[in-house]
Amino acid sequence: MKFSFKSKADINQSLPIVVLNKDIEEQVLIKLKKAQKESKLKGFRKGKAPMDVVEGIYGPEIRQDVLWDLASKSFAKLAEEKDLKIVSRPNLIPEQIEVGKDAKFKATFEIYPEVKISKMSKISYTNFLCEITEEDLDKTITNLQKRMSQWVPSKDKSKSGDQVRIDFVGKIEGEEFEGGTAEDFTVEIGSKSMIEGFEDGLIGFEAGEKTVLELKFPDDYGKKDLASKPVSFETKINEVLCSKLPELNEEFFKGTGIETDNIEVFKKEVRSNLEEDLKNIINGKVKQSLFDALLQANDFEIPFSMVDSEVSNMKYDTARRMGMDPKDLKEDLFPDETFKEEATKRVKVGILLNKIIEDKGLKPDGDKVKEIIEERAKNYKDPQQVINYFYSDDEQLRNIESISLEEQVVEAIKVEAKSIDENISYEDCVSGTYG
Predict the structure, then answer these.
(1) Which residues share a beta bridge with 231?
(2) Closest C-alpha to 251, from 241, 261, 237, 240
(3) Domains of the chain
(4) Distance of alpha carbon 150 from alpha carbon 139, whole angstroms
């Protein structure tokens, strides 16, 4: 068996493999003898068929199996000798497989990229800073009240934040269209659940009044036959409903999961919860900024097979979150292109983090692992039982160790990289529209 190999800097590799004819014939003979011994051919007793008969029946298939088996083993031996990190199954292309001659194959495959991390001191990331103000706290409490509010009839004119029950008939060029008509339909003004202008057009009316909304479907409207078309909605206001907020009392506090009858204690608990959530969000934003900076400073090629694998993982995760069986996934529902950009980014980040872990000799920190497990367990009724579960399940423990290692890498990068402080409001931070 003879081998040649390209530079390991290239992730796309190909090499010729030569399988000697003597090795082929030796293996073919061994398998033919075994086939002869086990043969049950018509006209012959078990195992007594002549070799030429056995060879005529089983020979071509056996020879084919031997060729591919020896070529695969040759490839595996080379990978071990060269310490190659193979990330895709080799494609063995036969170039010569004539009987009586050495067999020649061309193996094409991908290897794990070799990367050299740029100096951390050359990268900079954004260190987001955010504080919860009294106004943020008051808005949060008001939003909690709104979630637990009751909708009651109002005699006032409709305004933003109200609900209106309406009948409407949609027309395009004077003709009604499918899906454009509804009766006793409830719309919350300001929810942006309808096309632009619809909800604003319902402001300033009392029950029993009528109006015509002259609008236009968006260019990117879901139904292509309606996109960009002018439309009129003949609308009748059946009822105006306003939100009646619950009082800030013990019953309300309990409904939010906080056992107290004191408003100040309630506010303190809400603020504490907000601060904990904010800490996690900020950490996530800072980490993402670090990863983006790391990617920008380290450009390299990655194997397609690794991206394809990550795309599949993302599709399955999406399906599960939607309550779908991953077996029912269809390409038209979740096209690969939808996930490819993010999958590529994730693969690159993973490769870079693994390289940093390797370069710095990082190992999972037992104290950090314990801290993560206890943090996850604290919200359960019996935290110790959850802690015991994590430590008794090897797979779960490995997952936590991976999370711990990632956090260790992030901290290691922060020590060397340059941080740029940037203040953002609480609202921007939690909305996900900033950073």
Answers:
(1) 215
(2) 261
(3) 12-110 (3.30.70.1050), 150-244 (3.10.50.40), 261-431 (1.10.3120.10)
(4) 18
Cβ neighbors of 75 (< 8 A, separation 6 or more) are: 17, 90, 92, 107, 109
The number of residues making up the chain comes to 435
* Pairing of the two strands 124-129 and 418-423: parallel
DSSP string, 175-239: EEEEEEEEEEEEEETTS--SSTTTTGGGTT--TT-EEEEEEE--TT-SSTTTTT-EEEEEEEEEE
- Give residue for tokens 């104290």: 367
Q: Vertex 291, ends 285 and 292: CA angle to 5°?
A: 90
Indicate yes or no: pTM above 0.85: no
Can you say whether the dihedral through the CA atoms of 427, 432, 434, 435 is positive or negative?
positive
Span 306-316, pLDDT tens digits: 999 999 999 88
pLDDT at 343: 95
CA–CA separation, 33 and 18 (whole Å): 25
Concatenating the DSSP letter of every residue in 61-115 gives: HHHHHHHHHHHHHHHHHHHHHTT--B-S--EEEEEE--TTS-EEEEEEEEBPPP-
